[in-house]
Amino acid sequence: MSEHHHHEVSGKNLFITIILNIIITVSQIVGGIYSGSLALLSDAMHNFSDVLALFIAYFANRLATRPNNESKTFGYKRAEILAALFNASVLIGIAIFLIVEAFHKFYHPEPINSIWVIGLGTLSIVLNAASVLLIKDDSHDNMNIKAAYLHLLTDVMTSVAVVGGGVLMYYFGLFWIDPLISALIALYLIWASFGLVRESSAILMQFTPKGIDIEAVVKIIEEEHEIKNVHHIHVWQLDDNQIHLEAHLDFNEDVTLSASNTVIERLEKKLHDTFDIEHTTFQCEYERDDNKQIIA
Predict the structure, then answer these.
(1) Sequence-ordered list of residues with C-beta below 8 angstroms from that of 250, at least 6 positions apart, any chain
(2) CB 69, CB 132: distance < 8 Å
(3) What is the pLDDT of residue 44?
């Protein structure tokens, strides 16, 4: 079975990116309160979600390198999943609050200091663009950083919308634009966070990973002429990229241990090459009277 290689993220660039996004978040919160702009506050929450995502990516990358031990046989592989579920759930709550506030402001618009909106929205565009460039190289080899990289790209677009809204408010006094943009950003936050809640929950519940067809797995295993059938299959993800499989293999003959090892080694390679399954555990059997259902 092939060995899983863990990519080390550039700590310096990631740390700078986190600092830049903290600056954006804090400045937009202060500016949103001072100017009365709900759109700025919504964009601040969007950028805050980036800070959380970057922190998770950084610390999960470090935690994942810690060795397993007798009390933690899987190590800290699911630290990122737990944090992602918590953070996404909190962001959904914040987004719902922002939508409620947006509806209130839409029907009772108030004058907004649009200069703050334009200025801080522009700052967000510049700093997010810098963040994108800083972590671009790491995003090619690390799934967590790639997710944060894509999120930062969408932040540039939401900040463009905030600046556009600020311009419309400054020149035309269309203050209802502010809660509208706020609601749209909040809806996007819910959509993105809900997807993260669904994915992290599926991993924690040990659902069959996306892209894994159990029937296709069975077909590959039963192509081995030494195997009569495969049953009691379980497939799950340990974290966002490590897939595990366990199953009972019913052999046609009472083969030797070395012969069964040869079959297992072939299966490990085929399952890794086809489904990216990193770890397999097979229970070898011969004429055992047990439940032969694939999912038992």
Answers:
(1) 227, 228, 229, 230, 231, 285, 286, 288, 292
(2) no
(3) 92
Q: How confident is the model at residue 11 (pLDDT cuts 50, 70, 90)?
A: low
Closest by alpha carbon to 281, among 251, 249, 246?
Answer: 246
User: How far apart are the C-alpha atoms of 226 and 221, rounded to whole Å?
Assistant: 10
Q: Is residue 217 predicted with pLDDT exceeding 80?
A: yes
CA angle, 57 then 61 then 66, to 5°:
150
- Contact, 14 vs 136, CB < 8 A? no
Of residues 149 and 258, more confidence is placed in 258
Map out the domains of the chain with their CATH numbers. Answer: 11-204 (1.20.1510.10), 214-285 (3.30.70.1350)
Question: What pLDDT does residue 223 have?
Answer: 96
How big is the CA angle at 71 (ends 67 and 73), to the nearest 5 degrees?
Answer: 50
CA distances from 250 to 106, 121, 259, 275 (A): 66, 63, 14, 22
- CA–CA–CA angle 242, 3, 79 (5° rounding): 35
Q: Residue 13 pLDDT > 70, yes or no?
A: yes
Residue 230, phi then psi, degrees to nearest 5: -120, 140
